[in-house]
Amino acid sequence: MTTAPLYNRPLIQIKQTKLNPDYWDTVLRIFDAGQFKESLIEVLKYVDPEVPGKCGNAEQTEFVIPHGSSKIYLSIKDGKYFIRCPFLKVPEKNKVALLRQIAELNFNTLVLTQLVLNDKNELNFVYESPIELCEPYKVYYIFDEICLNADYYDDLYIEKFGAQRLEEIVVKKLPADVMAKSWELFQTYLKEIRSYVTYFEGKRSFSFCWDTMAEGFMKIDHILSPQGYLRVEIEKAVNQMYGNKQLPDILNDAKAALEKLEKFDQAKFEESIYEPEVFISARTRADITAVQNRLRKNYDAAKNEMGGSDYTGASLSLISGIYELLYRCNMSSDILNILLNAMEKSSGLEWKAAAETLWPAVTQVMDMKPGEPFKS
After folding, report:
1. Which of 45, 209, 268, 351 could form a disulfide with 311 if both were Cys (CB 3.0 to 4.6 A apart)?
2. d(Cα 330, Cα 350) in Å, to the nearest integer?
3. Torsion over CA: 76, 77, 82, 88 (sign)
4. Beta strands 164-165 and 70-77: pairing type?
5. In whole angstroms, what is the distance from residue 348 CA to residue 152 CA?
6. Do the beta carbons of residue 265 and residue 304 sit within 8 Å?
7. Beta strands 329-330 and 284-285, pairing class
8. pLDDT, tens digit (0-9, with 9 covering 90-100), for 22-52
9. pTM
């Protein structure tokens, strides 16, 4: 394997967060003035200014906000506010096993909300409070907690326990040609990961095995934007790569995850490829300082590797660093374009050429100053 991994532009346009940090002071000011209903609505505007008009009624007292495979209901009445997210119908088979998992979520994962089982065997995320207690930070993190957990665990529990959705999800399906291309690229990337792992294991370059597996899993997420159960498997695979185990154990877990993905059924794959609505992004917003902090470790490693003419190491350090940044963060289009253009130009190049393509692009990002106009 004498060339850098392949790169394709995402098949679904990268959705940048609409969250507006400059608006937060306005939200806090309205709450401090005792305008509690208005402050709730302003939190929605802070996340996405279109949500109140698009998702609310004329009186702005009832809102239905789509997010991924879920819907969040916000109701303001009788001096209280109520937030609910329909989750799953509990099956008779595997009921006890599933409810154990729900209890664990309630006690260990959920901080502000709770999953509540009603007399119809239906699970809902719920939160209610007097409206004067709608402190904006708390309200934002209620939405954040529901969005991230509902969208992740529903597909996991459907697959694992046979649970059913309480509401049919409404998503934008991809055209047939894009779906076919997604499956083709999925197979290509899995074969590429397998080839690199086999090659680097033969060379006993186990750190390079880690790089190529980590970037391979995150590349699938970046380019194909999987949802559903495939997204669950990709997240598990990525989390294992950054776990606290010893490297041999991490690689063994990663190979098991790779084998599972290689056996992924095409029909199930297609169920997991669609364009969702996103309210709260799973990626954190990153300004230039946060981006540089994220890239620093990989950049410093690549600097040493470039100095020692280790172009394979430098390329892999930069590529895996960029993919982790893309996996975890939203960033400005200026930064994004610099990095994606370099990834595209380095795709499939010999290691030396790839390193010499990636290095100046990442250096340009690392040299940027906060508030400094972008220079092409």
Report:
1. 351
2. 30
3. negative
4. unpaired
5. 34
6. no
7. parallel
8. 999 999 999 999 999 999 999 999 999 999 9
9. 0.91
Structure tokens at 152: 């992740």
CA distance 360 to 373: 18
Cβ–Cβ under 8 Å, residues 320 and 298: yes
Measuring CA to CA, which residue among 33, 138, 37 is closest to residue 81?
37
Burial class (CB in 10 A: 0-12, 13-18, 19+), 216: buried
Q: How many CB atoms lie within 10 A of CB 61?
A: 15
Q: For residues 322-332, b (16+ Cβ closer than 10 Å) or e, as one string?
A: bbbbbbebbbb
**Tokens read off for 325:** 């940044």
The rounded distance, in Å, linking the Cα atoms of 189 and 74 is: 41
* Residues 161 and 185 sit within 8 Å (Cβ to Cβ): no
Backbone φ and ψ for 205, nearest 5 degrees, come out as: -100, 75
- Three-state DSSP class for 284? strand
Structure tokens given for 102: 């729900």
Instruction: Map residue 221 onto helix, strand or coil.
Output: helix
Report phi then psi at 122, rounded to 5.
-110, 135
**Is 70 in contact with 147 (CB distance < 8 Å)?**
yes
Which residue shows structure tokens 């809102």?
Answer: 63
DSSP 19-62: --GGGHHHHHHHHHTT-HHHHHHHHHHHH-TTHHHHHB-TTS-E
- Cα–Cα distances (Å) from 221 to 43, 227, 351, in that order, read 29, 9, 24
Tens digit of pLDDT for each residue in 82-131?
A: 999 999 999 999 999 999 999 999 999 999 999 999 999 999 999 999 99
